[in-house]
# Entry
Amino acid sequence: MTAKKGEHLEKEGPLKKIYFYYDSESGIKQLSSEVFKKSDQIVHYPRGYEGGDKYKTIKKFTYKGFKGKLPVGVNKSVNFGYGFTKTLNPFAYHINDNYDIDEVIIEKGGKVELDLANKKLYLNEIALSTLQDAFSSIFKKNKEEVDFVLKTNLHTLFPTTIVKPTKTYISNALATSLSSWGNTIDEFSDEDKKAIKDLFDKLSLSTDFLTKEALAKTKEIVDNKYIQETLKKYKELMAIKTDSDSLEKKWQEFLKDNSWIFSYIFAQPVILYKREAYVGGKTIDNKNGKFNDFLIKNSLSDNVSFLEIKTHKTKLLDPSTYRGEDVYSATKDLTGSINQVLNQRDNFQKEFYSHKVKSKGGFETFNSKCVVLIGSTKDLTEEQKYSFELFRSNSRDVEIITFDELQTKIESLQKLLKTK
# Structure
C-alpha cells in the first residue's frame, strides 16, 4: 500500500469542502480544514507535531474576507500544523494557558477583542502584523546576542584561531526595548536615564535627526503615555466604593502629583500655587485659622483661585425628594463645601495685603474663582440630575464639577492626542 501523507479532500457538499490530514506512517488521520463555497471563509484545525490538538484549548482558526490569501502571523501550510507561526508562539501559548479560548476568528478589517464569555479571540490583519513585527524583533535580537556571546567565548578558548567579534548595534533593539516600557519613569534605573540623556546629546549634534517634526511627534507619544497612566490611576480611585477621610487624602495626593489637571478644572492656564494654604481668619488668640485644599494661580495674570475637594463618593443630593417626585435638596456636604470655599476666599481677600507682604508678592486676587470638586453624576437618577443641574446652574459664585465629568475631560484630551 502506498504511503499517504498530506491534506486530502475527504468530503464535498453544496456549502463547503472538508479536508483531512493523513500520515499513514505515524497513524494520523484528522480533520484539517474546511473551505466554504458561498462565503469567503476558511477554517483550520491546528494539528500537533505527532497528531492530535496543537493547543490545549484552541480548537480552530476561522478566517474571513482574505480571498484565500491569509495574513502574516499564521501558518498557511498544513505541514506546519496550521495555527500561529513559531514567531508568535509566546503569544499563542499565553492565550492558550491563561484563557479558555476555543476559537480564533481572524477577519480582514475586523475587530480585536478577547471575548471570554463566548470563548472567542478576535483578531485582524493589522493586529497580527503588529504582533509578528514585535516578536520578530525580539527573536532577532536574542539570536544576534547569543551569536555574539558564542563567538566571544570561542575567541577566549581559541584566541589565535578565532577573531574576537565586534559588538554592533542590533537593528530595532531600541524600539523593542521602548515598546516593553511600562508606564512610569520610575522603571528606568539611573544608568538607563544616563544612557538616554547621552543618546539625545549625541543625536542633538545631528541637525537632520532631531527635527521639529520629530521632537513634536516624540512629545505626542510621551504625553499620550503619561495621560494613559494618569487615567489608569484615576480609574483605580474611582473604583473605590467606600467614602472616607483617607479617600479624600488620596484624591488630594493624586491631584498634587498631577497638577496639570487643574488647567482642565479651571479652563485656563493655571499652576498649583499652594496646597493646604493658610487663607486667614485667625482670632486674637491665634485660633480658627482657615486652610484651603488647593490655592491655584493663573500662570499669566497671577490671579489666584480656590479649589475645595471632597470625593467621588460624596453624595450630591438627599436620597428622598423635598417636594413632589422630582425636587431634591442638595446635601450638607455639597452646601457645606460651597460655603467653605466662599468663606476661604472672603478671609483671603480681607487679609490679602498682609498675605502678599508676607509671601513677597507673586499673586493677585481679582474676584477669584471658586471651584468645588465633588461627587459623581452617574450615581444620580434622571430626576436627581435635573435637580442637581438646576442647583448648579444657579450657583453663580462657585463652579461645581463632579469627578466623572473631570474623568471625561481627561479622556477627551487623550482622544485628541490619539487623533493627532
About this structure: Confidence is low (pLDDT under 50) at residues 269-292. Residues 338 and 398 are 7 Å apart (CA to CA). The longest strand covers residues 270-280. Residues 125-157 form the longest helix (33 residues).
